Amino acid sequence: ERKNALMQLAANNIEQDRKISVRISVRDLEVIQRRALEQGLPYQSLVSSILHKYVSGAFKEVER
Q1: CA diameter of the chain
Q2: Entry's InterPro entries (predicted)?
Q3: Helix axes 26-39, 43-55, angle to 10 degrees
């Protein structure tokens, strides 16, 4: 029974999201909001997706 309780506690913590606060320039936020709107997403979801891709190694930097 204790094992099941610990497994459930671990599963709950793995999938939990956390709120963060980040300071970015007004211009960058406007661009993010515009791109999110183009994709039909809330801008917070777009930021979350970008961060997830970065930490998982799927984000590719493009040279300009």
Answers
A1: 57
A2: CopG_antitoxin (IPR022148)
A3: 100
